[in-house]
Amino acid sequence: MSLKCPKCGVELVGATRHRLPVHSCPSCKGLWLEHPELEELEDEAFDFGEHAKGTLVVSATPTPHPCPECGTPLQQFRYRFYELTMELCPQQHGYWLERDEDDRVLELMRKEEGQLQRKLVAEDQWARLLRHMHSRSFLSRLRDLFR
Ligand SMILES: [Zn+2]
Ligand SMILES: [Zn+2]
After folding, report:
1. Using one digit for the tens of pLDDT, what is the confidence trace for 43-78?
2. Which one of 39, 49, 87, 99 is most buried, counting C-beta atoms within 10 A?
C-alpha cells in the first residue's frame, strides 16, 4: 500500500529513524510514525517528573492534512514537553512529525543533556519519547482528548 505525504502528496518511503520504523517524505522530509504493532511495543515507563500528573498534551486543532492511510484530517496537538507539535490521525493510524520539529526537539535535548549531564544521550531520550508516544496508554489518552 502506498502512503502519500499529508503535506505535499509525494509518496512516502520506508525508513528507520531513532530505531523506529517510519515513513518519510523525500520532498519535505516529514516523518510518518505509524501506529505501533501493538503487541510488539513495550509500554515503557517514561519518567519526566510531571508526566504522571497528566495534561501534558495541550491544545488539539484540526488540520487540512489527510491521514496517509485513511484520509481523515489529521489533528494537530502540542505536547507540553519541549513544546513538541505533532499531528495525529484521530483513527490512530499514526503521527505526522515535521522534519524541523524532529531536529528542533533533538537540539533542545542536546542542550539539556549538557546542562544536566543526563545519563541518556539526547538521541536515546528522543527515541524513548517517540516510543512512549507509540504506546497504547498514550494513544488512548490522546483519543480521549479528541473525543
Ligand atoms: Zn512532504
Ligand atoms: Zn488514519
Report:
1. 444 444 444 444 566 677 899 999 999 999 999 988
2. 87
Q: 135 alpha carbon to ligand 2 midpoint, in Å?
A: 17
Q: Which ligand is nearest to the CA of 92?
A: 2
Question: Which helix (H) or strand (E) covers residue 53, if one does?
Answer: none
Mean pLDDT of 93-104: 86
- Residues with Cβ within 8 Å of residue 107, at least 6 apart in sequence: none
Contact partners, residue 129, CB within 8 Å, separation at least 6: 46, 81, 105
* Helices assigned H by DSSP within the chain: 99-116, 122-133, 136-146
Q: Spell out the domain ranges in the chain.
A: 13-146
| Contact yes or no for 96/103 (Cβ under 8 A) | no
Higher pLDDT, 36 or 52: 36
Cell of 23: 515513513
DSSP code at position 30:
-
Residues ≥6 apart with Cβ < 8 Å to 124: none
What is the reported pTM?
0.70
Distance 90 CA to ligand 2 centre (A): 7
**Residue 91 alpha carbon to ligand 2 centre in Å:** 5
